[in-house]
């Protein structure tokens, strides 16, 4: 029952901390698209792939005292930081949450900013489309982000890099 919760805690333990709700969603989505065992269902939303299930799970983990959520305010922007606390670490000792090769993916993704991961997750969301169609989706749906074709190519190279970590 709590396996999905344990996987989120494990992701944050591996990362050390995750800065931002959006970044957490993108990391889970990208990992799931690359066959890491996450259960959360995603749909396309304003900031790319979004999971209501993941949002609820994170809220539950915070309410249960297993995960610390710290709010940072930078001007008009509020950002949340997630850190595994001691109670959460104890919980993981009793709940299996092996993410296998996903650990390397998580460490690598956490080095990137949320804007870039938003692009990568959008690319992966439309991974069944031909390149030109996917690029048009990115330019249309993410017009406020003003991504360039160079950034899309960098995002595709990043996906290849992550796939290379799977072995």
UniProtKB/TrEMBL annotation:
This is YwgA family protein. It comes from Brevibacillus fluminis. It comes from the Bacteria.
């Amino acid at each position: 029952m709590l396996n999905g919760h344990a996987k989120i805690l494990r992701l944050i333990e591996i990362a050390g901390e995750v800065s931002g709700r959006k970044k957490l969603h993108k990391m889970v989505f990208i990992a799931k698209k690359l066959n890491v065992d996450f259960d959360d269902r995603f749909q396309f939303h304003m900031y790319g792939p979004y999971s209501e299930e993941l949002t609820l799970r994170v809220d539950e983990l915070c309410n249960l005292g297993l995960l610390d959520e710290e709010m940072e305010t930078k001007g008009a922007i509020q950002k949340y930081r997630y850190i595994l606390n001691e109670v959460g670490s104890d919980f993981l000792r009793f709940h299996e949450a092996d993410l296998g090769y996903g650990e390397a993916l998580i460490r690598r993704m956490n080095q990137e900013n949320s804007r870039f991961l938003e692009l990568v997750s959008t690319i992966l969301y439309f991974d069944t489309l031909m390149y030109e169609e996917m690029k048009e989706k990115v330019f249309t749906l993410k017009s406020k982000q003003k991504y360039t074709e160079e950034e899309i190519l960098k995002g595709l190279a990043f996906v290849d890099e992550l796939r290379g970590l799977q072995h």
